[in-house]
């Protein structure tokens, strides 16, 4: 079961896969991928909310969650993605790793 799945305005994003857009049912297992963005990529107004990131090289837009500063999640990641499966997680990681204008580092 998704850890953060009851989180108010993040509901929509948390309930669909960032990569394939498939609905993630709350009772299903889901996967989370976290990443650090490059310095200067301003997320300060987006904390506790979501952003759409255009992955130019993959020609895809993905939705990411921006955790609040000081939260547990923010310690490891600037942004995180909810995914329906390990396969989508791997595909997303591969895509993020090509976007070095935006993504500094993808967490494992
Ligand atoms: Zn998926």
Secondary structure: elements and pairs:
Elements: H1 11-14, E1 31-37, E2 49-55, E3 60-66, H2 72-76, E4 79-83, H3 86-98, E5 103-106
Antiparallel strand pairs: 1-4, 1-5, 2-3
The structure holds zinc ion (ZN).
Zinc ion binds at residues 17, 19-20, 22, 83-85, 88.
Can you walk through the features of this model?
This protein is an alpha+beta fold. It has one domain (8-106). The chain has helices spanning 11-14, 72-76, 86-98, and strands at residues 31-37, 49-55, 60-66, 79-83, 103-106. The strands form 2 sheets. It has a 3-stranded antiparallel beta sheet with strand order 4-1-5. A hairpin with a 4-residue loop joins strand 2 (49-55) and strand 3 (60-66). The protein is globular. Residues 4-8 have low confidence and may be disordered. The structure holds zinc ion (ZN).
């Amino acid at each position: 079961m998704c850890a953060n799945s009851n989180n108010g305005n993040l509901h929509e994003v948390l309930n669909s896969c960032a990569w394939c857009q498939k609905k993630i049912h709350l009772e299903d297992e889901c996967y989370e991928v976290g990443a650090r963005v490059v310095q200067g990529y301003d997320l300060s107004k987006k904390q506790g909310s979501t952003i759409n990131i255009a992955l130019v090289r993959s020609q895809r837009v993905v939705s990411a969650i921006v955790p609040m500063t000081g939260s547990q999640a923010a310690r490891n990641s600037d942004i995180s993605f909810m995914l329906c499966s390990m396969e989508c997680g791997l595909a997303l990681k591969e895509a993020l790793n090509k976007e070095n204008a935006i993504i500094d580092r993808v967490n494992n």
